[in-house]
Amino acid sequence: MYCAKTGSKFLNILTTSSVITTSMSKKASKKGKSQKEPDVTPKVFEPICLDKSKHILIHILAKPGAKQNSITDITEEGVGVQINAPPAEGEANTELVKYISSVLGVRKGDVSLEKGFKSRQKTIKVLSDTTSLDQVKEKINAEMKR
């Protein structure tokens, strides 16, 4: 499985099928014999995954200017988060980091904005020594159900 938008592999690495090519003479290839096609499995994207250094990445679809901070939904593209701050001068980014750290119960310094400083599609990095991937998923799902 691959992490959404970053292309980094999950901790549970799937084995990819190797491409087997057979050498055929030019005469055989002209006769219409085709080579074996490799099995193509679609990539599965997850909004909460691990990066190469085993830190937790959360892909966020930010919705700034809301009345209150809340997690709205979890889709393949990311975790929908409403932010109670305007999208100007980095106020929404700061509020997003504060909100995610409070939801996960970790220090604000353990959560950082990795990508998407000027976009609504953001990537948050959480240091893996403070919490696990399963705990992050559980806490985000619990917050969404509120």
Automatic annotation (TrEMBL):
<protein>
    <submittedName>
        <fullName>UPF0235 protein C15orf40 homolog</fullName>
    </submittedName>
</protein>
<dbReference type="InterPro" id="IPR036591">
    <property type="entry name" value="YggU-like_sf"/>
</dbReference>
<dbReference type="Pfam" id="PF02594">
    <property type="entry name" value="DUF167"/>
</dbReference>
<dbReference type="InterPro" id="IPR003746">
    <property type="entry name" value="DUF167"/>
</dbReference>
<comment type="similarity">
    <text>Belongs to the UPF0235 family.</text>
</comment>
